[in-house]
Protein 1
Amino acid sequence: MPDASDAPQILSDAPGSFARSVLAERHPALIEKVRDAFPYGPEQHRALDTLHHECTEGVIAPLPATAYDHDRWQEWGREHFGRSWFDVPFLWAESYFYRQLLEAVGYFGPGPWQGIDPFRPFKHAELHTPEAAEELAALDAVLRSPTERQANALVHGSLWGNRADLGFRLSTTSDAADAADAPLVADATEALWSLLPGGSPATVYLVADNAGRELLPDLVLLDHLLYHGRADRAVLAVKPYPYYVSDATTADVLDCLRRLTRAGGAVADVGSRLWSAMGKGHLTIGAHDFFRAPLPYAAMPGSLRRAFASATVTVMKGDLNYRRLVGDRLWPPTTPFTACTGYFPGPVAALRTLKSDVIVGLDERTVAALDTAHPEGWRTTGTHALIQVDPGPRRR
Ligand SMILES: O=P(O)(O)OC[C@@]1(O)O[C@H](CO)[C@@H](O)[C@@H]1O
């Protein structure tokens, strides 16, 4: 890790900052969106009112002593309880907000609302939009093209799928979802492929981000790796509970697999192959508890470290995973990517559209060109993307 003292941790207290807008605007709007999507009872309405008040004007309350993960959150940040949401690390505040939202709607029960994903209506609707149908048709066309052309097209499909982030759309003004694909601000596609030459046993660990229109191309990419012999095993890591609005859970993987198998054509073949790959153990789903932790991956527990160490490459999807991978700090943008990922126990690649202030691994010319072309900002608009690779401790 480079010296972090030059790179302040991102809090949400700076007026006009992106982080502040997420806490002050996105979170209250999300509470109301969830409230309107279900016929919740008075108890849940009261709990949502309390959360709305606390996260805008109040202080952070601990979980009830009876919560299954009460002790875990004490360990992950007891020092933040009793403080304003705006004064604690942005990463921690966001993560805890999602945990508290689930608490408010009774997700952890006991009771009739136990296990009801408050974001499911939005995720489900997105899977059946005309945009999703168009993207599946585009994937179908890629799957019918010569194999050598498929690889890069599918990596880029998975990368740009990261624009499909329902939380992001709650507050963005630019329609990043429809933005034309801009050139990548860093493009290590070839370095990624060099880690998966094919012909030798390889395990790919894909740490998923959003469900729906991001997870569909992720699944098609995993099928490509397995079917064309770039990997003989894949692990798809999802969140253990609903998170950051549209982050994928196991239930979302199943919805996406069904969506693929019902799409017809070459895409349906992908769905059937993945279904049977799961039966044979070539594709497994992982939902390690640390994937919902409010902490950077540098703090990962030994069990997850061992899992990543055994992978030929870990692919981190999306903005939040990027923040957790390199640290949620205001690094100078020219800080080398590998300087921030040196702790990672194996090769790791980031596929991310830019939706927060964190960025590393750019050269000075790129930063200057971006600043000139986008004086209004380019880090948080979701219109730019990157692929960065750390080849791991053995090749670094
Ligand atoms: O991880 P994802 O889905 O790509 O993005 C998550 C995100 O929408 O949430 C955060 C703000 O809420 C930002 O880091 C980012 O814009």
Note: The longest strand covers residues 348-353.
Protein 2
Amino acid sequence: MAYVGIFMAAFTFLLLPKIWQVLKISLWRPYALSRSFRKQGVKGPSYSLFSGSLHEMKRLKMDAAQIVMDTTSNDITPRVLPQYHKWCPLYGETILYWFGTRPVVSISDPDLAKQILSNKFGFYVKPKCSPAIQALTGNGVALVNGGEWARRRRIVNPAFSMDKLKVMVKRMATCTVAMLEAWKDEANAAMDQCKTIEMNGEFRKLTAEIIAYTAFGSSYSQGKEAFEAQVELQHYCAASLLDVLIPGSHYLPTPSNLQLWKLDRRIRNSLRDIIKSRLKPKNLDCNYGDDLLGLIMSASENSDIKEGPKLNMDEIVEECKTFFFAGHETSSNLLTWTVFLLSLHQDWQTRLREEVLKECGLEIPDSDMLARLRLVNMVLLEALRLYCPVVEMFREASKDMKLGNMMIPKDAWVSIPLAKIHRSKEYWGEDANEFNPIRFKNGISKAANHPNAFLAFGIGPRTCVGQNFAMLEAKAVLAMVLQRFCFSLSSEYKHAPVDNLALQPQYGLPIVVKPLLAQNI
Ligand code: HEM
């Protein structure tokens, strides 16, 4: 009898509160929040126990992945953001849905997006990612929040200043020449001097080379090894994005966790070795080199940061991973989609080639030449608008927040679907889905009838730290391609943009390249 009493007492005091907690999170809160949002005029798909809207989203994504679009259509939302394509006609532009038990409010109004992304007090924070995503992207400046973020951003910023980037253009060009030489050899070996090349794969390799070279300079081959493991890791993460997260499951030695831990160890060890080799013999003037790693190590030593210590070894490792992840997928996809658009719009390809030959001749472009490429810049921005590598951004409300006419409760997420905002007719006009680089002739803020309708690099304090790097890299690579080749879309191409952590062509981008005979470079 006594045991039963003890059991009942334990049940009452230990288990009941837990059960109540689970019921509150998985039943009561979704019910109460759905009601409260409905009163504020915000509707959405109904909540399913534990999985929220995840199963529906997964199903819609799987169905969308079967669609092959018309090659000339730039309307990628049904394929890339199928959930909004289905839900918006039913519930309106602002939608409440559920990542498991977590409420997410999707915002498509640039004014509200600006309020979220530019919040002065940092009340909308970056949401905590799954351990797999953290291992992949690095728990660096892109993921941390608050004072920790400010400390890291201050250390990282100077490495991306324009004068430092100018030096890096040479390294970007060196990597590009090697790739283009290989293309030329392959094309010249063909009877008709034409060669079909899968551009997405080529640009991924190239941007990985560039980031490894600009990040690690002389330690480049060691850095490449680490980054190759990171690419492998990406396959595990992309597959698990819409899985329902079971608390604690990342500690279990499942086959995929074991593989993930192994890759993570390999990445860390390689990066630690590189950093250690820079530290000895100890550099007295704290000059660790002019590559990204060296600049960050120097900035960390020299900075007059009051709050908190300078970056330690593990933190530098995380920043290196962040640069690689943030810097190579996005940039390669910008190049991929720009080449795709220029293959379809041969008139623009000719115009850009004329501009490049006028400003750079047949020389390897330097940063001053690149700065004069106005049309190239406009085309890159238009490619970023139509095929933005990051299709959606998320933030978490760190306290109850008033947003427009809505109350966003603490812990709720807000999503900003860039790909949708970028093709809204309300902001971009009737030709929102057309390729029209001229719209950027007076700069980004005047391209649409709302100054914040272009969000490819984010806005506010957490805007992309590598955007100048990315634009210089894209201009340099594109200019060098245009100097040497004309190109057109292969008949094998299937138009199927897909969001695998960045916007990619699902079946690759086969492009027919032909060396320009007049340009013997
Ligand atoms: C076309 C190329 C690129 C695009 C479209 C892009 C896009 C973005 C976007 C949208 C954000 C903001 C994300 C958010 O607020 O949730 C971001 C942040 C960031 N990007 Fe990029 N990015 C590109 C290239 C790069 C490169 C080349 C690097 C570094 C080498 C880089 C490093 C970062 C970092 C570190 C952050 C986090 C900044 C912070 O939170 O303070 N990005 N990027």
Note: The mean pLDDT is 90.
Protein 3
Amino acid sequence: MADKEDPKNGKMGKGKSKVVCGYPLSIFFIVVNEFCERFSYYGMRAVLVLYFKYFLRWDDDLATSIYHTFVALCYLTPILGAIVADSWLGKFKTIIYLSIVYAVGQVAMAVSAIHDITDSDRDGTPDSMTFHIVLSMVGLFLIALGTGGIKPCVAAFGGDQFGEHQDRQRRTFFSVFYLCINGGSLLSTIITPVLRAQECGIYSKQKCYSLAFGVPAALMVVALVVFIIGSGMYYKAEPQGNIMLDVCKCIGVSLAYTICINTFYITAYQQWLKKLLIAQIKMVLKVLFLYIPLPMFWTLFDQKGSRWTLQATTMDGNFGALVIQPDQMQTVNPILILTLVPIMDSLIYPLIKKCGLNFTPLKRMTVGMLLAAIAFVCAALVQIQIDVSTKQLLHSSPYILSGQGFIYFKLTIKGKANSDTEIVENQAITFVGFTDYFLVYFRFVNGMKTAVNVSTAAADFGLIEPFYYSNYSQIKNGKATFTLRSGSQSCEYSTNFGFGSSYTFFIHSTLVFGSNCQDSVTAVEDIKPNSVHMALQIPQYFFITAGEVMFSVTGLEFSYSQAPSNMKAVLQAGWLFTVAIGNFIVLIVAELAKIPKQWAEYVLFASLLVAVCVIFSIMAYFYTYIDPTEIEAQFKKKINEDDEDDKSKPGKAEVEMVKRDSIKCHDEYDKATQTKM
Ligand SMILES: N[C@@H](Cc1ccccc1)C(=O)N[C@@H](Cc1ccccc1)C(=O)O
């Protein structure tokens, strides 16, 4: 293994890669691969729930459950990928094979979203939903296997490209790696929703989910091709046998020694191998033990996509020329990552170092946790603001009185109109989940003796009988012009709809068609427009992202640097497993806690994280940083010495395991274990 500077060709990293500015060129292919892969993953994920809901026609509950199951699976499969990579195929081959599985999964998703395939009556809707459901579930399973399987391998494979004395470069690599993840995810979460909104189809036009899944599929193929192009330059660490089997064997043999019956004779060479494996297992277990409190961070972090997005649906997203959708607020995270990672790396961390403070990885992670807790306190404060504004509107819940004949309504308002609102008994508006933020609700009450037809340039809302009211209809927020028509006579009424608002328009009995009907219609606000601006979510996004930079970027590098050479991917998988557990905690706490006040739930999560953070800092205090390469080198030196020794004694080296009496076994074992490292 060539991991020292080679003066002839200027190589410094491992493998055959040229070195550019102190970094092995092979790294370029790995970060580009990660960029494309994350584009593919996050792009597909961005439209997945809408695909379930609008294409497969699932209800909100089913769509949400399948979505979370898929995400959880994506963070469980890394264990599988890591075992395959570290014990059998090696990281390189595992990445190649699982990337193919991944790309096939993405293609299956894209094909499953072509409605024309089963639309034999050509009415724009699939005729055999089973085909689309089965294909998309197979696709999602393959994607989870692929994305999760390669995830621990790519980061560890990147780390492998650096030589022993390139700690600084390796740290920078993990930062750049994180930047690429966020560059890819930022672009895709902007692009795929736009693609989805296009209309496409052979026989009939429908929302273009196939394109929204097709582009991520193409990016996954690009990721694979880029990775293969770099293949001649990589340092490919050989898999070191079946690690899991070795671990089990090691435990078994140790037990045999301990209970001292039926023990085996093992050469001194094998003794050292066993001791090395025990030392490596100890390194991994120490780190895994330290990981126990970590899922709590992810529990808070992953609520960006759920609770915080729902919070945004009750806020005003009007940023002047730009109107932001609640789910688009999530792009603030990768945008902030792209700015914060370079600032931290080139300014904050060096500054802290200059101040003489030893800001160790575990200290960074502790601060990251605290920042996430602060983010949730900010979220709670914003929630209190929202609740105050909602309370005001509930008190002003109106009664509508008609002129002649007195039509009388009492409106029961239970939620915001922009949040996939359900009309109950034509009177109450109940929040059931978020769909389209731009839609608001309205209805008309006809106080005239004649039937009135209501329409806009885009839609006809039908005829309203005298002294009767229309059902609620949806319309895009912003300015709307209604045409009120009775027979051949008409007039126009214009109004503005704010985000989240709902209106009842009362047509006066005194309305005269042909004249200005602006004064003859009274608009009553059923639900006030959202008044708390979405910009108020920026502080909470800032703190959670700053926390992510300190926690996640550091943790990724920490998991690599503290892992023994044969278990790098296994420890990366352990790190990702904390993400999966964090997601399960969200489901459990949300289900069990059932806290009526959302702000209180945010405070609860913040407090839990602070408590966990205290425990983690105590555990971190007792953790001793190790240099696995150094420890392994000492063991290997000893192994080589004893190997030579064994070879000089004919026949002994060939004997793998010879059954001997327990006294001999003890003698040998004691001799080997008394030798100092
Ligand atoms: N900041 C996230 C990416 C992101 C992009 C758009 C919306 C939300 C998040 C990120 O960097 N993710 C990394 C690390 C990670 C984070 C959480 C769970 C697992 C891994 C990634 O590898 O995806």
Note: Residues 38, 42, 178, 181-182, 185, 189, 330, 333-334, 337, 548, 552, 579 surround LTUEHXSF (CB under 6 Å).
Protein 4
Amino acid sequence: MTDPVLEVRDLVKHYPVRNGLFRRSVAAVKAVDGVSLRLDRGRTLGLVGESGSGKSTLARVLVGIEKPTSGQVLVDGEDVLHLSRAGRKQLRRDVQMVFQDPYTSLNPRMSVTEIVGEPFAIHGIDPAGGRRAAVGELLELVGLDPDHANRYPHQFSGGQRQRVGIARALALRPKILVCDEPVSALDVSVQGQVINLLEDLQAELGLSYLFVAHDLGVVRHIAHDVAVMYLGRIVELGPEGDVYDAAQHPYTQALLSAVPVPDPSVRLVTTGAPVTTPVEGGVSTDPTRAVGAIVLEGDPPSPVDPPSGCPFHTRCWLAPTLPEAQPDTSASGPPAGRPGTGLRLVPTVCETEVPALVPRHGDGRPGVPEAPGTAPADEAAHVVACHFARELVAHRVEA
Ligand SMILES: Nc1ncnc2c1ncn2[C@@H]1O[C@H](COP(=O)(O)OP(=O)(O)OP(=O)(O)O)[C@@H](O)[C@H]1O
């Protein structure tokens, strides 16, 4: 049975853009623009997307560092945004954050005892056996020597500092850890150790993780479910295997196709993706990029003025903009797609408003997506905010 520990419903976080003498709000940065997702107890939800897509903003809102503009956040079914003061305090205990940079997130003037014990002081908690003993236990839990508790952050390596950060996050026995790029500042050799530690802690303590990362390889390793974010919205969400092996949204396909592979001659297979690699004379000029990678042109549009309809349509390699991509209405069969893609075309759909992407259970409760590939009962269904891709998949299955 699925057991959501965290549910996010239509969450919005806009930052005002101020101008003029009176600093009036003239526009808004739509950092998070209607996000819905669900994190099940004891599981890890990976959150991926390009820089600026809104991942950190979402993470900060979930741990209560920032207030959302609108929307709902439910922890164990309780709407935490409308809690009493005591309720908010409890939320701060239930949802903790592991920060990206263990070099800047630890106060260099505080000893490890003070850093890890700080949450006790803030919340006025005196653990049984005393704070010093509790800190020692936490250090042991994360694989550090309790005898080093009086040392300062600069006396530890990057990986050890991140362990200190994890120990601090665990001090109040949270239910959820929001991990914002927790290993991206670490050497590759150390990343694995920290990931393994997080997995062990999850198994031991039943923790649930929202794991924000750029590195799709790391997310594939640790996440049970994956959400893909673009320009403040989730564009695809589903079980890890579905998203990685049968990505449906063109943006996800592009992200996955750009994952470096050791052998540049290896052709990556992406669902129906035309080969648009940066090649010269048929040979990839970038040894880290596989032939077959989908290169997204340009930067993401500004979150101050995102495109109408699907926010990705201005960079979408599937968007039906070519003249030959017009539907053949004279034929009785499905309209023709782009030459060579074998894909059915759904005209103008990218311009139409994309409804909020709501994660579904796969057990027939309302709103289970009709697209094929719906996950079995009690798993997060695979949902994708691209009608065009959905139509394509449906057509392929029919064919
Ligand atoms: N305090 C703020 N005031 C105004 N705009 C902000 C603020 N914080 C973030 N933004 C903007 O919101 C958008 C999303 O930023 P965010 O840092 O959440 O993205 P991200 O996906 O986490 O990127 P990265 O991976 O680089 O951290 C960006 O356009 C960013 O400039």
Note: The first strand starts at residue 4 and ends at 19.
